[in-house]
Structure formats: C-alpha cells, structure tokens
Amino acid sequence: MRKRLLVALVLILSACSTPAIPTNAEPLPVVSAADFQLQLVQSSQPSVVNVWASWCLPCRAEAPLLREASRQFEGQVTFIGVNIQDKPAEAAAFIAEFGLDEFDHVADPDGSIPALLGGSGVPITYFVASGGDIVATHFGIIDERSLVSGIDELLALP
Q1: Range of the domain at 146
Q2: How far apart are the C-alpha atoms of 146 and 134, rounded to whole Å?
Q3: 154 neighbors 46 (Cβ within 8 angstroms)
Q4: Contacts of range 115-121, beta carbons closer than 8 Å, 24 or more positions apart
Q5: How many domains, the chain?
Q6: Residue 6 within any structural domain of the chain
Q7: What is the CATH classification number for the domain harbouring 121?
Q8: Could you tell me the pTM of the whole model?
Q9: Is residue 76, in this structure, part of any structural domain at all?
Q10: 3-state secondary structure (DSSP) of residue 59
Q11: For each of the chain's 158 residues, which pLDDT tens digit applies?
C-alpha cells in the first residue's frame, strides 16, 4: 500500500514539474500602470487584458483558451498579458509552455496595473474598448463562454 502511495505521489509531482526555462527568452518589459493605461487609451482596437502569474494554477488552466482566442480574433482584438509578482525566468517559461508568445506581455512586479484598473489578484481578465474604457471585468478563471461573450460585446461597440 505504501509503495502505491509513493508511486502515485511521484507521478503527481512529476506532472507538476516546471518546464525547462528557455535560455534565449528575453525578460518581459516592465511597464508602469500609467504607461499601460496610456497604451490602452491610444489603442485603435479593443483589447482583452489578462492578468496572470506563472505560480497561479487557474492561470495555467485558462492559458490555452486565451491562446486560441487570440488566434481566432487576430486583427480584431488585441490581447495583452500582464504578468504580476513573478520571477522573469518563470514568466518566460510559462509563455513558452503555453505558446502565448503570439500576443504581447508586460511585467508588473508590484501589481499596480490591476490595481489601477480596479482589481487585485490573479487571474483577472479585462475587456477594454478602443480608447481605453473598461467594458467588463472577469475575476477568476475565465471559461470559453465568458471570454467569447466579452469579446462579442467589445466587437459590437460602435
């Protein structure tokens, strides 16, 4: 019985291991909350802003969905990842693991961007109209229905 428990524990821990960190990955650019807000205001496209961290299990669960949505809505909606309170190498490994390099990411070491946008914690997804107005905020892990609904709302705006 103990041997089975030990084997199960080893399997679980190996499944949760961190992938190899890409050696050629550049650290994410650190952006202040004010500069990020200005970027949203100046955007001519609506944006989906996802706040994430490599150590966040719900963030790991929603990452494939965000990757696929960024592909599906390419050219219509800008996707931006905001990595908070993370180590640069671990953030780079997360992006590589989930193939999230298809859209831009910024680093926010102190979590000031979500605070400015009216939230805290991870994950958070903001739906932002062109011009920078926040249309909707989704706290916690986002599912496909909520993500597509938020994007549809953005695309329906004049």
Answers
A1: 26-156
A2: 16
A3: yes
A4: 115/33, 116/33, 116/34, 116/36, 116/37, 117/37, 117/49, 119/51
A5: 1
A6: no
A7: 3.40.30.10
A8: 0.83
A9: yes
A10: helix
A11: 544 433 343 334 334 444 444 445 678 999 999 999 999 999 999 999 999 999 999 999 999 999 999 999 999 999 999 999 999 999 999 999 999 998 999 999 999 999 999 999 999 999 999 999 999 999 999 999 999 999 999 999 98
